[in-house]
Amino acid sequence: MEFNSNKKKNFIKALPFILPFMIVYLFFLVFPIIRGFWMSLHRWTIVRKMHFVGFSNYIEMFQDSSFWSSFGNTMIFVLVSTPTIVLAGLVLALICNQKIRGKLFLKISFFLPYVLSVAVISSIMVYLFQTNNGFINMFLEDIGVISNGIQWLSRDLLAWFVVVFATLWWTVGFNMILYLAALQDIPESYYEAASVDGATPLEQFLYITLPQLKPITWVIVLLQIIFSYKVFAQIWLITGGGPGTATRPIIQYIYETSFRQNSLGYGATMSFTIFVILIIISVAQIVIRRKRSDVQ
Amino acid sequence: MKKEISPTKKALKYMVSYSIAVCFLLPIIWMLFVSLKSEGFRVSRIIDWFTPPYSLANYFSVIQRAPIFRWMFNSFIVASSATLLVIFLSSLAAFYIAP
Q1: Side-chain half-sphere of A234: how many Cα atoms within 13 Å?
Q2: B30 contacts in A (CB within 8 Å)?
Q3: Which residues contact B39 (CB under 8 A, 6 or more apart)?
Q4: Side-chain-facing half-sphere of B76: CA atoms under 13 Å
Q5: What pLDDT, on a 0 to 100 scale, did the predictor assign at position A1?
Q6: By CB count within 10 A, which of A23, A52, A211, A246 is most buried?
Q7: How far from chain centre, in Å, is Cα A239?
Q8: pLDDT at A296 over 80
């Protein structure tokens, strides 16, 4: 009894602290999610009134080949960019963690692109990869590798390469910072003990560094998957989804249906589907992690 | 106990590390130099990007043609108010959620 009333008292005391956050959270996050689901059950255009159609938007989505192809593009981006950017982050963090002069310079150079906005990095990339007078093509011509400009943005594979390259250059600094913090948390004594026992640097890396980086790797991979799933702005600004629709990600398709074709209901349907997929990925990751730590 | 690494290895370490860093900086440096070129300047070799003449003409024309300070101010309003609100609201909430 007494415990209960104590709990109640505590809750009332906590209320003024939690309430401001809860109001903002409910109003700007929970409400839009529910509202989005509600919208997805309607046929709704700017000119016509909302009218309830149940799950027919979802049925339409499953038959929409454009949905699947742009969803496939996003999956390709996630599958290619996640390992690339996570590994690159680890490599850059290891570079910064060596015994080397000018660590600050290295850290700043790797992190600098991250502070630029997506519009800036996209226009840099567009000018770097232009067919005529682009930096990359001119460089390759100057050193004599190619004689005609490569059409970076009008070939499917090359356009993908440019997009992944741009994202790598732009965002890898963030992963590097996370890895670097984790690397610096590994006690020096582990390495000392290992080298007394005669472990080579490679063995130290494999049996001390990598296992110690496991927890942060889970976090980085999850963040990177979520980030890669939401890819839109840099593709929109660099390739515009092209050539054709070869690099069009799902978010761009949602944007086009919602705001170009004014099918807000159908756009909401696809958004909600992506939302559910992301929730499933996040929960699955947490569950796998729990199970693994239980085993150990 | 500790062995000094050989000079070749050391040189290699520095070369690899610093050339990656320069690759990361290169697009930004390139952007800076291009912004200093006057318009209509022809480039036929890569070295042309980085050699004079430089001019600040682009910067002046940006200031004249576009309300860029207004845009910066808009960004500033969004960034500062969002930061303040997030710090205020989430620190209040975290204060009571934390055990």
Answers
A1: 28
A2: 124, 128, 135
A3: B57, B58
A4: 6
A5: 46
A6: A246
A7: 18
A8: no
Rg (C-alpha) for chain A, rounded Å, is 24
Q: What is the pTM of this model?
A: 0.83
Spell out the SS3 assignment of B24-56. Answer: HHHHHHHHHHHHCCCCCCCCCCCHHHHCCCCCC
Of A101, A109, A195, the CB nearest to B21: A109
Name the B residues in 19-78 with CB < 8 Å from any A CB: 20-22, 24-25, 27-28, 30-31, 34, 43, 45-47, 49
Which residues of A, range 192-251, sit inside 8 Å of B by Cβ? Answer: 195-196
Q: State how far residue B68 is from chain A, nearest Cα, in angstroms.
A: 15
Whether A170 contacts A113, CB under 8 Å: yes
Give the Cα separation of A85 and A92 in Å (integer). Answer: 10
Query: Can you tell me the ipTM of this complex?
Result: 0.80
pLDDT tens for B9-51 read: 888 889 999 999 999 998 898 888 888 887 766 666 777 777 7
Pairing of strands A51-52, A42-43: antiparallel
Interface of A with B in 163-192 (CB under 8 A): 169
Chain B residues inside the 8 Å CB shell of A105: 21
Least CB–CB distance from B28: residue in A112, A127, A196: A112
Cβ atoms A21, B88 nearer than 8 A? no
Q: How far apart are CA A234 and CA A126, in angstroms?
A: 10
Q: Measured between alpha carbons, how far is A291 from A287 in angstroms, rounded to an integer?
A: 6
